[in-house]
Structure formats: C-alpha cells, structure tokens
C-alpha cells in the first residue's frame, strides 16, 4: 500500500522571496503543510480550494503556528525566511469547469508571476457520481480540472523567469491500475480503481507535458507522498468504507503512516530542491527519483491517447492559442 517510512531529507534551505506558488487543496493535509512550508521559505502562496471558511481557518492556523515556530527554533522544521506569512485564499472548485476557468482568470487579473504550481487536491471514495459537467467526479477533480488549470497557466509560468515547476501529486495506487481505453473514466468500477486511474493519468500527463515543454524552462514532476494519515480517508462527505477507515487508523496507530508534514516533504523537494532545477519528467518517492512500476505510465502510445482524450473532453475550453504555449519557447 505504500513505501516504508525510510528517513527523508530535511526541507532544503532555500529563499523563495519574490516567488509565487499555487497549491490546490491547501486547507488540509499535505497541501496545508506544503503551503505553510513554502510560505515560511518566503513565497507568496495562493491557497486554492472550494471552501472560503475552511481556507481562512487554515490560513489563521498557519500564521499561528508560524509565529510559534519563529520564536522557538526547536519548533520549526524549516529555516524560516520571513517574519510574516504571505498566504491568500482564492476559490477553486475542481468539480466545476466554470470554477476552474474563473480561478484562472482571477489569478491572471492579479498580474502576479507564477513559479510553482502544485496540483495537490484530490478525492477518494467520492461515490458513483458525475459532475455538473458530465464527468466522473474522481476523473474531473483529481485529473481533468488540474490538466485544464495547468494548460491555461502555462503563459504565466513561462513568463516568470525560468526554473518554474509543475508538481502533480500522484499516488502509489497508480501501480495496480489496468488500462481501459473503452472506459477512461472508470465508470462503474471499484472506487480505488477510479482513484488509481486518475493518479496514473497524472504521471502520464507529466511525460506528455515535459516533452511538449522541452526548452521552456518549466520542469514537470509527479510523486507519491507515502501513506499519509490525512483527512482524505476520513471525510464525512466521502463514502469511505468502514474497513478502509479502520485500516487508516491502524496504520496511524502503528506509526506506519506518515504525518502530513512528512507526507509533504516529497512535494516540497520536487518544488524547491535546487538539484531538480533544469530537470523534468521525474517521478519521486521518499523525496528522490524512483522508477515506475506500471508499464502503462511510460507507454507513449497510451500517453498520446490520454492526451487526445483529455483535449477532446475539454474542447470547449482549450483554444488553438492555448495549445501554442506547448510549442513556442
């Protein structure tokens, strides 16, 4: 179910002052820890999620923890680069194409650069549900809306000075998924198959994006954060089986599941570790590059099929001008 709790590298000692970061699903779990840590390193961080109330609660908690850690070095897991966190909420509901496009326009209207895009938000056990856009909900939230978001933010990433990063937070669950061209959204399949397929698609997207963005100064990475004791397996609005909740609790009590901070470390390394500057198309586990275990992930024909299928799904929202950003340097 996950990698062992091997020791991980500490947070890199880098200064992100003047950098701008977007983290989707940053109000809880590894998204929260990612956003907080990058803000402590000096970045301006956009907390992109659907609930303003939960986002504001998370931001207040970040600032409280930051104040405590700043006054006591022993409490801090990062070499803090700022007195006050620059963290801002922006609404983003990935189950809605309209909300995703509104987020893009609102962010562009701010005139900010964008140096790091962390596609972190996700759902599991969301039920046999279609979104208002007509897509299977795991497919849209975990993969398709992030794909749309990324394509529309490419001009900003390109214009922001080199060494920009796109981070696609995947999962080891990609390993057990079979390829089904006749059922790409895994309708009427087991919930873990739905979830795993979206995580496989994120890895495949990494390769197709990296190839098309070669020479652009943008690095594309995907990763498995480890088995993490987060809210994704506990939310009341998700149909998580009793057995899965029991397993998550058991792993946590046996200390076989990472806490959210340690789960975020691999994301943080992909985003800011200087050793990955100029690199792309790397899949990471335990904060280091790792070989992939599912042959579908590296199959170029399958990657191209997914790419074309995704564009077809989003044909009303992706123009020729959008696609030109994938070829112009």
From TrEMBL:
It comes from the Eukaryota. Pfam families: adh_short. GO terms for molecular function: oxidoreductase activity. Keywords: Oxidoreductase. PANTHER family: RETINOL DEHYDROGENASE, SHORT-CHAIN DEHYDROGENASE_REDUCTASE FAMILY PROTEIN. Belongs to the short-chain dehydrogenases/reductases (SDR) family. This is Uncharacterized protein.
């Amino acid at each position: 179910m996950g990698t062992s709790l091997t020791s991980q590298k500490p947070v890199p000692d880098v200064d992100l002052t003047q950098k701008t970061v977007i983290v989707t699903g940053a109000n809880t779990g590894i998204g929260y820890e990612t956003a907080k840590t990058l803000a402590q390193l000096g970045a301006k961080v956009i907390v992109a999620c659907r609930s303003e109330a939960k986002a504001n609660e998370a931001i207040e908690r970040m600032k409280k923890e930051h104040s405590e850690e700043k006054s006591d070095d022993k409490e801090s897991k990062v070499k803090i680069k700022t007195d006050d966190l620059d963290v801002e909420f922006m609404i983003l509901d990935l189950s809605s194409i309209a909300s995703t496009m509104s987020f893009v326009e609102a962010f562009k209207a701010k005139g900010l650069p964008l140096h790091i895009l962390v596609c972190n938000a996700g759902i599991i056990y969301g039920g046999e549900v279609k979104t208002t856009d007509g897509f299977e909900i795991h497919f849209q939230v975990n993969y398709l809306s992030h794909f749309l978001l990324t394509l529309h933010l490419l001009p900003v990433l390109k214009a922001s000075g080199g060494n920009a990063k796109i981070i696609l937070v995947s999962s080891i669950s990609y390993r057990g998924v079979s390829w089904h061209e006749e059922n790409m959204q895994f309708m009427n399949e087991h919930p873990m198959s739905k979830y795993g397929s979206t995580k496989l698609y994120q890895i495949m997207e990494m390769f197709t994006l990296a190839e098309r963005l070669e020479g652009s100064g943008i690095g594309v990475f995907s990763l498995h954060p480890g088995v993490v004791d987060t809210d994704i397996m506990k939310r009341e609005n998700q149909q998580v089986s009793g057995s899965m909740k029991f397993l998550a609790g058991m792993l946590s009590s046996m200390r076989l599941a990472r806490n959210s901070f340690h789960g975020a470390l691999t994301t943080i390394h992909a985003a800011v570790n200087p050793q990955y500057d100029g690199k792309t198309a790397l899949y990471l586990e335990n904060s280091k590059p790792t070989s992939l275990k599912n042959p579908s992930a590296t199959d170029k024909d399958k990657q191209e099929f997914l790419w074309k299928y995704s564009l077809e799904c989003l044909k009303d929202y992706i123009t020729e001008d959008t696609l030109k950003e994938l070829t112009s340097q």
